[in-house]
Amino acid sequence: MIIATTPAQLVEALKPLQGDIGLVMTMGALHEGHLSLVEAARRESDHVVVSIYVNPLQFGPGEDFEAYPRDLEGDVAKLDGVDVVFAPTDESMYPRTPLVRIDPGPVATILEGKTRPTHFAGVLQVVHKVFNLVRPRAAWFGQKDAQQLALIRTMVADLNMPLEIKSVPIKRESSGLAMSSRNSYLSDVEKEQALGLSQALAAGKRVADAGGSAAQTLAVARESLAHAPGIKVDYLELVDRDTFTQLNGSGTGLLVTAAWVGTTRLIDNLEVAIG
Ligand code: AMP
Prior knowledge:
Blueprint: E1 2-4, H1 7-14, E2 21-26, H2 32-44, E3 47-52, H3 72-78, E4 84-86, H4 90-93, H5 112-115, H6 119-134, E5 138-142, H7 146-158, E6 164-168, H8 188-193, H9 195-209, H10 214-226, E7 231-240, E8 251-261, E9 264-274
Parallel strand pairs: 1-4, 2-3, 2-5, 3-4, 5-6
Antiparallel strand pairs: 7-8, 8-9
Helix pairs in contact: 6-7, 9-10
The structure holds adenosine monophosphate.
């Protein structure tokens, strides 16, 4: 496995590779959720590239850019069957502040984008750069970041980017907690409290499975989260999984939520079928 720390090193490392490349992009502090993406990429690709980069452009002022867990050595030890790890320095990724920017459009202004207004522009900027550097046949992303996944699919479609976007289901702890690098911020008590998110989504899904309407599904999920101890809700909505606009009638929707447990902001989502 080659570890490239600049775009130039990455390009060199890719030169001898024959066949197609599968790409997995991460911010590191790897857990089983990330590794499920790597596994999926390995199954369908001749070669696999994993990027590990805490992208400053996707963090807003006052967010956890500095505190975000970083453990390149530990991460590399968890990776198996990966040809190249791309772990660039900030200076090599952004030798100057980029002048040409990706505009992620209206979906980037709602839900996650409402609380984190510059987040998705930063995500799409780095995703576009890494796609251009790696030129993968396909890239794997987690359903955990559902709005991000939808925006990446939109970018690829709107800009005719020559690769396939694949998604992998959310990996959860046996408790139901969605795995996240940010779970390392949680105390034992907060980890218990954080179960309120997945439990609220599951409560909504039970209503939908029993034939409940969109409004009933959402109301029960919100009620559950509102009563969960130690949780401050940012949003809980039922949306169309592609447009992320409110789902009112029937169809497949996503219950999406973000909430703070202490000072840690967590997200989760669950697919529900209405009607
Ligand atoms: P991150 O390191 O948080 O930027 O995540 C890198 C990739 O891993 C993204 O495509 C995420 O959606 C995905 N991912 C993160 N957590 C999970 C999880 N629990 N299950 C599946 N995929 C995940």
